[in-house]
């Protein structure tokens, strides 16, 4: 994996604006998604990106996955804020 200092930040910005998603960017630049997040924060803080430029970074399925969990017993999709399944009462694991 590369260090964040080894990434061409201008090229990264161009790729974000071109609509590449986070997993693709991380793979292309040889960095983790955590490191990518740090570079994105840097771009925002420098005024090189706005929040509206980040819409394509994460797919709908990634967002849904981050905001929900699936009950291992009944397979109901439950909001992440709930610790118990709203269908069967099973606790989140």
What is the strand and helix layout of this fold?
Blueprint: H1 9-17, H2 22-29, H3 33-45, H4 60-67, E1 68-70, E2 77-79
Antiparallel strand pairs: 1-2
Write a structural description.
This protein is mostly helical and 93 residues long. The chain folds into two domains: 4-54; 59-93, SH3 type barrels (Roll), CATH 2.30.30. Helices cover 41% and strands 6% of the residues. It is built from four helices and two strands. It has helices at 9-17, 22-29, 33-45, 60-67; strands at residues 68-70, 77-79. The longest helix has 13 residues, at 33-45. The relative contact order is 0.13.
Count of distinct structural domains: 2
String of helices and strands: HHHHEE
**Strand order within the widest beta sheet:** 1-2
Number of helices: 4
- Unreliable spans are none
Instruction: Name the structural class.
Output: mainly alpha
What is this entry, summarized?
By secondary structure, the protein is mainly alpha-helical. The chain has two domains: 4-54; 59-93, Roll (SH3 type barrels), CATH 2.30.30. The chain is built from four helices and two strands.
Q: Keywords, please?
A:
93 residues, mainly alpha, SH3 type barrels, 2 domains, two-stranded antiparallel sheet
């Amino acid at each position: 994996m590369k260090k964040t200092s080894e990434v061409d930040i201008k090229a990264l910005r161009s790729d974000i604006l071109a609509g590449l998603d986070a997993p693709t960017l991380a793979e292309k630049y040889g960095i983790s998604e955590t490191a990518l997040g740090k570079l994105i924060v840097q771009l925002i803080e420098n005024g090189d990106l706005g929040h509206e430029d980040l819409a394509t970074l994460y797919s709908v399925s990634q967002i849904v996955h981050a905001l929900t969990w699936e009950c291992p017993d009944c397979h109901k999709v439950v909001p992440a804020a709930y610790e118990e399944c709203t269908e069967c009462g099973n606790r989140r694991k």
